[in-house]
Specification:
- It is found in: Membrane.
- Belongs to the major facilitator superfamily. Phosphate:H(+) symporter (TC 2.A.1.9) family.
- Its main location: membrane.
- There is one protein chain.
- This protein is mostly helical.
- The protein has two domains: 246 residues, Growth Hormone, Chain: A (Up-down Bundle), CATH 1.20.1250; 223 residues, Up-down Bundle (Growth Hormone, Chain: A).
- 72% of the residues lie in helices and 0% in strands.
- It is built from 23 helices and no strands.
- Helix 5 packs antiparallel against helix 6, helix 9 packs antiparallel against helix 18 and helix 11 packs across helix 12.
- It is globular.
- The two termini are 30 Å apart.
- 47% of the residues are buried.
């Protein structure tokens, strides 16, 4: 596959295309929109619906296979797998809900939802890994932007569901079965690996600010239109216009490559600031910059075929070492490229996993039970509460990238510092929830949304900085397992048990009052206190790594020392 020249338009075209794929990858957030139809049309009990919801979480977050595949196949292959999973998974669900096929077994629908939502893991891995490698000097910013759009995807699908599909669950499932594959098939051509820039570029900073501003405007627009739709009666023409404006906002990142096409002289002038790489041929740029940015530089590069591939047997390597033909490879240090089996034995790997698991697991517990929490505390219509959480979740994801990127460059403060800060704030938030003080519900929900989003926006670039980009796909997807495991333990077992026990005392189908979740909130406050303590330890441990990587005020890839 041809590697494109540094500074060319394709990386920005790929980022603009990735926005659409990330929206499609958020298809798992549509479950609340069609789950009532599953219950009513197919006659499911609440318990059966809850178990179906577990399938939704499992499919979305188990991404080990795409993590492995992204190092062996180009991005379009990974996206094509996601296309097939979405088509067949949501296709089966549509057949059931539309009653085109009758009496489909429960286990078939459960597996269909796992398959359907697993498409998001393949799509998200393809675009995130590719763009992190295309913009390695701004990986925090890129992670914040892309994960931010995933956070907005639920609101985008809600807008389509309410304003275009007339609240029809069967039409939504048909849209997911056909619309997501069409989007990915159109965009997969533009999402490709490109040789990243070798130095800082002032225009790149401006482009990122524009993309962040566009996503922020989209978030505000979606929140506003959601409130309008829930409070006013809008006719179909206005609804279509509002949906069309949303599409324009989604297309706004394309303005960057368009500008670079119309005004190439401006880009070339700014590109000269980082040296003479613009005058190199494609092959020269590819060979020099790919080596320096995507893999650690080592004197082992001249050792012939022994290190060119991963297929050399250990016996052959040991014989070659014994004959002096090659030097024994040392284990990577933090900041260099780790294989998964090398990373998984490191204390920092598990510290990061546990901190992420505790932060995301406690946050997702509130998210999964937010409607019941609102009803228990006297809020009958929880639509605005859910929209507020989604909006602030987006702000947390986007802001984590911006803020952590600023402080890691200016003060070499590890990104995990912000996980510690937000988990300390989450302790206060859960105590506010437990107290059930009047007027605190919306403020606590907004703050929790921000803190919850920060966990995503910080974990992704941190994993890439500590363990490298070469095997980032599988490492990042393993980290993401903290989400469904946290949901199972804290939401499914803890919150569900406490809620049912209190509802049993009240002898009603629903639980009302602060006691429905008080014990859950107190336990979650303790969980976040432990998470904040571990994140402090992790931050202290990895501070030297960040002082090395960002000593010059910008990212530089760690190099092997055995020259």
């Amino acid at each position: 596959m041809a590697v494109l020249k540094e500074g060319s338009r394709p990386p920005w075209v790929g980022l603009a295309a990735a926005v659409w794929v990330q929206i499609a990858a958020g298809n798992a957030y549509t479950f609340p929109l069609y789950s009532p139809a599953l219950k009513s049309v197919l006659g499911f009990s609440q318990q059966q619906l809850t178990i179906i919801g577990v399938a939704n979480d499992i499919g979305e977050n188990v991404g080990i296979l795409p993590g492995i595949a992204c190092n062996k196949f180009p991005p379009w292959v990974i996206l094509l797998v996601g296309v097939c999973l979405s088509f067949f998974g949501y296709g089966v669900l549509w057949l059931a809900v539309s009653q085109t096929l009758l009496s489909l077994p429960y286990w078939v629908l459960w597996l269909a939802l796992v398959v359907a939502t697993n498409s998001s893991a393949w799509m998200g891995t393809a675009v995130l890994v590719t763009n992190m490698r295309n913009f390695p000097l701004s990986r925090g910013t890129v992670a914040g932007i892309l994960k931010g759009y995933v956070g907005l995807s639920g609101a985008v699908f809600t807008e389509i569901f309410a304003m275009v599909l007339n609240d029809s669950a069967s039409e939504l499932l048909l849209f997911l079965a056909l619309g997501i594959p069409i989007i990915c098939l159109v965009m997969m051509y533009f999402i490709r690996a490109c040789t990243p820039a070798s130095g800082e570029d002032s225009s790149e900073h401006v482009h990122f600010i524009f993309t962040q501003a566009a996503s922020l405007l989209l978030a505000v627009y979606l929140l506003t239109t959601t409130i309008l739709k829930s409070t006013l009666s809008l006719n179909s023409s206005i609804s279509y216009i509002l949906a069309g404006v949303m599409v324009i906002f989604l297309m706004s990142p394309l303005a960057i490559p368009v500008k670079m096409t119309l005004f190439p002289s401006l880009h070339k002038r700014s590109g000269k600031l980082d040296g003479s790489s613009n005058n190199l041929t494609e092959e020269e740029v590819s060979s020099s910059q790919t080596a320096s940015l995507l893999t650690p530089i080592s004197s082992e590069a001249d050792l012939g075929s022994f290190h060119e591939g991963e297929d050399v047997s250990e016996v052959d390597m040991l014989l070659a070492e014994g004959e002096g033909a090659v030097k024994k490879k040392r284990k990577p240090r933090r900041g260099e490229d780790f294989k998964f089996r090398e990373a998984v034995v490191k204390a920092d790997f598990w510290l990061l996993w546990v901190v992420y698991f505790l932060g995301v697991g406690s946050g997702v517990t509130v998210l999964n039970n937010l409607a019941q929490i609102g009803v228990a505390l006297g809020v009958n219509d929880t639509t605005i509460l859910l929209s507020l959480f989604s909006f602030c979740n987006f702000l947390g994801r986007l802001g984590a990238g911006v803020v952590s990127e600023h402080f890691v460059r200016s003060k070499t403060i590890p990104r995990t510092f912000w996980m510690m800060v937000t988990q300390i704030i989450m302790i206060v938030i859960f105590l506010l929830y437990a107290s059930a003080l009047s007027g605190t519900l919306y403020a606590a929900t907004a703050l929790l949304g921000i803190c919850f989003g920060v966990q995503f926006g910080v974990m992704i670039p941190t994993a890439s900085e500590l363990f490298g980009l070469k095997h980032f796909g599988i490492i990042f997807n393993f980290m993401q397992l903290g989400n469904p495991i946290g949901a199972l333990l804290f939401s499914g077992l803890l919150a569900g048990y406490v809620y049912d026990a209190e509802a049993g005392k009240q002898q009603g189908p629903h639980c009302l009052g602060a006691n429905c979740f008080r014990l859950t909130f107190l336990v979650l406050a303790g969980v976040c206190a432990f998470g904040a303590f571990l994140s402090m330890i992790l931050t202290i441990r990895i501070r030297p790594v960040y002082q090395m990587l960002y000593a010059a005020g910008s990212f530089r890839v760690a190099q092997d020392s055995d020259h």
